[in-house]
Amino acid sequence: MSYSFEYIDIILLAMIAGFIFLRLRGILGKKTGFEEDINPNFHEETVKTVPEKKLNSETFDESAKKEFLKGAQIAYETIVTNFSKGKLKDIKSLLDMNVYEQFNSALDERKSKNYLSETTFIGINSAEIKHHQQNKNMLEVTVEFVSEIISCIRDKENKIISGDPEKVKKVSDVWKFSKDSRSTNPNWLLIDTQA
């Protein structure tokens, strides 16, 4: 008698599986390969791509300036922090060759004197485009950054040579970025710095 209940369980489970299969087939349908459009008046929505405008001094409008400033602020913080850590290879793609050589020689001088730089980047208070111009195929943009940084330089005996590791100071930098207006590369290069 107990064997009959096992057969009933199997039959019951098979019926439930069959019911689920039929429900799924009814909901999802059966592909025959001859489907027609549901509504012939329904038009497929096409995405219209707007060709990207060539970036130059005339097309460097307010929205382009806002987008540029977002990237410039990220680049500023990245360059300042990596330079202070001595990691030029991490920012080489953001630097013009001349600026890279200047930074590299400054780091070599720091290493030769056995100085250690400690920098904590607090944040950027403001970033403002001061000037932009077209120089042949290069678009150049000058930005003034006002930031807050804690920095000091120590010698090999850990004595403070300059700066204060406890004090936040306001730093004003004027940096010039450049981008080839013919290039599809979105990166700008830092071509000049002034403190």
Task: Please explain how this structure is put together.
- By secondary structure, this protein is of the alpha+beta class.
- The chain has a domain at 62-194: Roll (Nuclear Transport Factor 2, Chain: A), CATH 3.10.450.240.
- Helices cover 34% and strands 30% of the residues.
- The chain contains 3 helices and 5 strands; from the N terminus they run αααβββββ.
- Strands 1, 2, 3, 4 and 5 form a 5-stranded antiparallel beta sheet that branches.
- β2 (138-154) and β3 (160-163) form a beta hairpin.
- The mean pLDDT is 85.
Topology:
Elements: H1 2-28, H2 62-85, H3 97-112, E1 116-135, E2 138-154, E3 160-163, E4 169-180, E5 189-194
Antiparallel strand pairs: 1-2, 2-3, 2-4, 4-5
Identify the notable features of this structure and list them briefly:
3 helices, Nuclear Transport Factor 2, Chain: A, 5 strands, 195 residues, five-stranded antiparallel sheet, alpha+beta, single chain
